[in-house]
TrEMBL record:
This is RNF41 ligase. SMART domains: RING. Residues 101-144 form the TRAF-type domain. Residues 225-244 are annotated as: Disordered. Residues 227-244 have a biased composition (Basic and acidic residues). Pfam families: zf-C3HC4_2, zf-TRAF. Residues 18-56 form the RING-type domain. One of its GO terms (molecular function) is zinc ion binding. A zinc finger (TRAF-type) spans 101-144. The gene is Rnf41_0.
Amino acid sequence: MGYDIERFVGYVNEGLLCSICRDVLEDPLQAPCEHAFCTACIHGWLVHHSNCPEDRQMIDVSLLRPLYRYMKNDLNRLQLHCKNREYGCEMVCSLESIDRHERECEYSQIPCSNAGCTVQIERRNLDGHLAVCEYRSRECPNGCGYTILSAEDTQHNCVAELRTELELLRSEMICRVEEAKHEMESRLDSQRRHMVQKESILQNEIEELKSQMSRMMSDVRSLMAAERQHQQELEQAELEKREL
């Protein structure tokens, strides 16, 4: 939707009006047929139609372009009243700067910043409202350190609040101790399983080494027996040689 034409001071050129909502162009786009529209208006129109609402020529969203520069300049120079005029703001400024003004306007209706408060208040009166708002908070004057709402002043009990806080802290501490305990037990179980696994691997390696050692000793004994046999054969051959 565009800017309400009733807000503008003086004459507004017909070419600066949206062809759909008939208000002054807001965030304008232009079709190839040179008819101009508010971005929101033309996008909404093209959801259900495929032509220009003025001359019925076929258009597509990809064909829409920004407004001509001279038209954009004319649009930005238009003078209009602040939207908060009904609340007392008398500011008149250019369309180009109206958004910046309205973001800072002292007559703008803004929500109270206190949690739970639903009051909408003029920006210029916000400080006064915050001073008396029933949802305003402050630190307990008795020194317990709690932040309390004004509506809770008569119900606030420092001892009871501190006792409750102490119970919460105790419960939290117990939970943390239990969590730490479970975590340590889990780590110990994991390390225990790892050690058992390593022990099993080492035991298997020891058994394998024993088996290899046994085979080596058997081979050594076989070699020694073969050596003795060979020696005996040599001695026998020597005796036969001497006899000959």
